[in-house]
Amino acid sequence: MIRAGRLDYAQTMADLAAQLGMPLGTFRNKKPHTQKNHPATISSPTSRALLWDSEQTKAFYAGEPVPALPDTDDDEDLLDRHEAAAELGVAPGSWDKYKSDPRLAEHVVLVPKKDGTEHWPRHVVRSFKAARPGRGAGGGRRTGSGDMIPRDQILPRIAELLNANPEVTIAEVSETLGITKFPTAQAGLAQLRGQRVADLVEATPGLEPAAAAEQLGYPEATRQGAVTIAQAELRARGVRPYLQQVAEALADAGVADPAEVEVRRLGDDHLAAAVPLAADQGVPALVWDERYGWRTAISRRHPIGRNTGAAPTGEGIRYLGPGIKPTPAELLDQLADGSKGAKSPRG
Q1: Cα separation of 35 and 72, whole Å?
Q2: In 62-185, which residue ranges form alpha helices assigned H by DSSP?
Q3: How big, in percent rounded to 5, are the helix, strand and coil portions of the chain?
Q4: Are 158 and 149 in contact (CB under 8 A)?
Q5: Cβ distance 73 to 83 under 8 Å?
Q6: Which of 168, 279, 303, 345 sits in a 20 to 30 Å window from 207, CA-based?
């Protein structure tokens, strides 16, 4: 998070590379930010765009003591998507649905200010949480009431319970850890079971996901959900290197800011990803869908859109090819020459 009063110190990867007098591509290859004792990011570890505090990085590279950042929560702290979801007590995917609410949307802060990552003041998220009625009942922590442990510790703690008992229930996780049943305990258990099924399938050639779920000792009622998540996870692992290669090529060409691509599992169980483009491109973002390939987006805030059952069409949307997985060079060529983009979805 960006602590209160420190917005002006927020530094992107491109900013840090420039500070070091290093081309962005060289920075990504050398990864100086991974060296021992380097200041930690002020963005969530899973954020698509990493941020640092420039006062800390300046001191580090000057060989001076790195100043500590405030460690007390403040109403004016700026929270990114993952942190806002944790504050609200929901999964990041649920936050994506809530953030369009006017009570949140009108307070969004882009970091950096031009075409940056969305952040929200902590007091805005808390006010929204207080006004949002709780859902669910029947024991455990009331949904929406928040969790008793930091968000970044929830999955590791659930993993410990799953290690001890593959049949651990949502209610047991909720009561033991002091987290909400829905969606926190439910989503965490499902995610971990699915990932472990995927891990076992990768490590055991020929093993089917359903057999892996049974081998791991998961209750029969949870196996299908674990299999579904595992199948999506395996597909995501397979396509992520390609998508990251494209994102890095776009950044090297000056078309986009450097970012870690987040592969999303859509409601209809298909995969998609978005790469925000620079403001001078005339197109807010590119979207990849495993069914249709690459297309331009008409919204930066919601590039993928909500209609996940059909290929989006409309004014301003162009499909870029050839095929579902064109090379970065082919994609850049078509992006530069809009007349080459297909005007209709793939057949």
Answers
A1: 27
A2: 81-88, 92-98, 102-105, 122-131, 151-164, 170-177
A3: 45, 10, 45
A4: no
A5: no
A6: 168
